[in-house]
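Operator note (shift B, R.M.): manual run for Protein sorting system archaetidylserine decarboxylase requested after the automated queue skipped it. Running by hand, logging everything below so the morning shift can see what happened. Input copied straight from the record, untouched. If output looks odd, do not overwrite the archive copy; leave it for review.
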Amino acid sequence: MVRGISPGAIRYGVPPLLAGFLLTPVSGPVGLGLVALGMAAVLFHRDPEREPPESGFVTPADGSVSVIREEEGRIRVGVFMNVTDVHVNRAPTGGTVESVTHRPGANKPAFSKDSDRNERVDIDCGDYEVSLIAGWFARRIHPYVEAGDDLARGDRIGHISFGSRADVLLPERVEYADIRVREGEDVTAGETVVAADPAE
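Run finished. Output pasted below as returned.
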């Protein structure tokens, strides 16, 4: 990875930039349009450094908390990523990746209730699970990890090009009293604590 940007910047940003530079002398408006498109793609895939706290479960994504609910005795916290947010996703806490599973599905808007049936990649770390969920436009999920990888809190685990939502399914020991965010709150991946860990 190039420092400061995720791999998607190269894939989606460089081609229109190169085409734009080549076309600008021949067709100014088209060339400049492609340059602007390429720069927007690079900006979208920015990857700033983050400083994780020493404890707690941090949010896996930048954005706004869209879901806090209980599922079979465990609490799920979901974060909707707007187009202006950083789309690199991070580990909520330390652990070892047990599996990375791609699940095909729909492509509903990530802020809607129907998005629970969307295409996703589930990263199971045993104690907790992170789901990278595609939206109506975002259909490019890029996990960085695989089974057996050891993670520290705030490590990069993947990115979603042009979308959309990332959830953390917390361990059973985490209760509502441990939750540190509310729906609608803006959060920062790898830094904002979404829940205290009673085990710490």
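Quick read of the result: Residues 138 and 154 are 23 Å apart (CA to CA). The domain at 57-195 is CATH 2.70.70 (Glucose Permease (Domain IIA)).
Leaving this for review. - R.M.
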